[in-house]
Amino acid sequence: MNERQRLANLLRNCSKNLLLDQGMQAHGTVMKMGLGFDLMLSNDLIDMYGKCGRTGMACAVFDRMPERNVVSWTALMCGYLQNGNAKGSLSLFSKMGLSEIKPNEFTFSINLKASGFVGIAENGMQIHNMCTKSGFEWVTVVSNSILDMYTKCGRVSEAARMFNVMPVKNLITWNAMIAGYTLKGNGERALLLFRQMQGMGEVPDEYTITSTLKACSGLGAIRQGSQIHSSLITRGFLCSVRTMIAGALVDLYVKCSHLTEAQRIFDQIEQKNLVSWSALILGYAQECNLLQAMDLFRQLRVSIHHQVDGFILSSLMGVFADFALVEQDEAEKLFNETPVRNVISWTIMITGYGKHGLGRKSIRLFHQMQSEDIEPDGVTYLAVLSACSHSGLVEECQEYFSRLCHDRWIERNVEHYACMVDLLGRAGRLKEAKNLIDSMPLKPNVGILQTLLSACKVHGDLEIGREVGETLLRLDGGNPVNYVMLSNIYAEAGYWKECERLRKLFKMKGLKKEAGRSWVEIDKEVHFFYNRDETHPLTEKIHQKLKEMEQRIKSEIGYVHGVRFALHDVEEESKEESLRVHSEKLAIGLALVCGEVEKGHKTIRVFKNLRVCGDCHVFIKGLSKVLKVVFLVRDANRFHKFENGLCSCGDYW
DNA sequence: CTAGGGTTAG
């Protein structure tokens, strides 16, 4: 074997096994031997550098070549694509179009994949056209790539058309189509196809199984999912491809809330990968079992086999934010540790700060991500808008909204408008909010109308409130919340007859308000309370404590009951009494009785399933001042951070 | 010598 061939084999081996150092050495030898201009060796070098993540070097080799063939171009594009630079590959593709060299099936499939990555269908369709004209369309690899490109660009029906007319299908064709349906939330279709392919004697592989399991978990189809699971066991499939499928199985049971089964499978996995770890950790977090989730995370960190990645760190950031741990800067620490931050990890972080009323920090991150060349998408905009709105940053919010409107790559949805309605509503600019809804190019949904109605309630706007409220009763007549809000508005305006009418309607429809429930964690034990709950053994002491606190607040800062908040509930409640026994107050009372303050805790965390009542809001503000303690209350709507007599929500709960 | 399909996060 001559030296040239030996070097080529060496380079291919380095490329295959990602041996950068050895590859660079071989590069040196190539140059020393005077083979720097050899076409085949240069192509191998481009491939090797691309695979090893050195696109700069690949590019340098490419640029120095006196002549290039289609392989040189394609290898470089592939390098770009595999290192996440899909646009780079596409621009090389257009550059190549200006040269004499014609693309082949390899070039096409790489750039179809790149188009799918970028997600713009028009771009991919152009390449599809070129495939048709050059006769590559029905080369199976190319048709598969076209099909996949369409699903990634959200054109599932185009993909299905391709699937139906393809003269030759292979396993990859089926897999791509099943994955496409799954990705676009059409799980039923995916399962149908899965059965169909088996009916045609096609044998599924690990790709098929993982996509199909994902379809099941998306549908919450535990029965079908576990059927596949058991068929895997009987066919002995699990032994050979355990790690591949395990993540999807863990996720399936997690999504269906079968944590015990998820844990059981997880324990059986011999080589656990990060996917299964993160699926299980998030499963526990989703069940509000923060202790178990954190414990698993600690185990993951000390296990030597795993380098914690950006994916799991950013998921956990979201968990921390939801459990109000942003205060301890846990999420921020994780964020700084995250090796590769993408648009999702940034968005999680922006959302986290937004939920805690730290709008300025959200804005700072929003700019920082762009300075690091990560482009925001629709969800990012939603995060920053909602952060601004929750922090009352009116001008900023309007500015980002108009930026969003001018960005033609991002689709606006009702949620974006709902943020603006919330913002205007807080500011008492209800007419403008109403106009925005009336003039927006989208159909208003129940959520945005409820946002407006709730603003009407806060500002006591009868005129708009009545109109929106009555609309909501028509659109969403089964939802108790609408009755309560509207009847509050009527009552405050003194429209008692209307109140009575709503109360009757409410009873007639057999509706029930969701029972208010709060909980607090003390010494690693969670205590739950309903309104008027007297089942806790310390109930008497709790009532005593609350009375004592009321007195203190009254005498020290002149607190009065905000009785208006309880006056007009649809169900009858005695005012004074009901105010004293709201579940959130009981939970706080218990924390005080148990001496959480004396133990030196600076922060007391309370959770509530509904929104915090207005009177309790006033009360907790007072408490935070006289006790010099921070209360962090997570309710159905947002976090409230009570500190020194003020609340982060600026009294707009 | 270059290529196509899957699992965990907002």
Question: Would you kindly provide a brief summary of this structure?
Answer:
It contains 35 helices and six strands. The chain is mainly alpha-helical and 653 residues long. α9 packs parallel to α11 and α22 packs antiparallel against α23.
Summarize the topology.
Layout lengths: L2 H15 L2 H13 L6 H13 L3 H10 L5 H13 L3 H12 L7 H14 L2 H14 L5 H13 L3 H10 L5 H13 L3 H13 L6 H14 L2 H13 L2 H19 L3 H10 L5 H13 L3 H13 L7 H13 L7 H8 L5 H13 L3 H13 L6 H13 L3 H13 L7 H13 L3 H10 L6 H14 L2 H14 L4 H13 L3 H13 L8 E6 L2 E6 L8 H19 L6 H4 L7 H6 L2 H11 L9 E6 L5 H14 L2 E5 L4 E5 L2 E2 L6
Parallel strand pairs: 3-4
Antiparallel strand pairs: 1-2, 1-3, 4-5, 5-6
Helix pairs in contact: 1-2, 1-3, 2-3, 3-4, 3-5, 4-5, 5-6, 5-7, 6-7, 7-8, 7-9, 8-9, 9-10, 9-11, 10-11, 11-12, 11-13, 12-13, 13-14, 13-15, 14-15, 15-16, 15-17, 16-17, 17-18, 17-19, 19-20, 19-21, 21-22, 21-23, 22-23, 23-24, 23-25, 24-25, 25-26, 25-27, 26-27, 27-28, 27-29, 28-29, ...
This protein binds one DNA strand of 10 nucleotides through helix 1, helix 3, helix 5, helix 7 and helix 9.
Structure, described:
By secondary structure, this protein is mainly alpha-helical. It has a domain at 517-647. Helix content is 67%, strand content 5%. The chain has 35 helices and six strands. A six-stranded mixed beta sheet has the order 2-1-3-4-5-6, with helices on one face. Helix 12 (187-199) packs antiparallel against helix 13 and helix 21 packs parallel to helix 23 (378-390). It binds one DNA strand of 10 nucleotides through helix 1, helix 3, helix 5, helix 7 and helix 9.
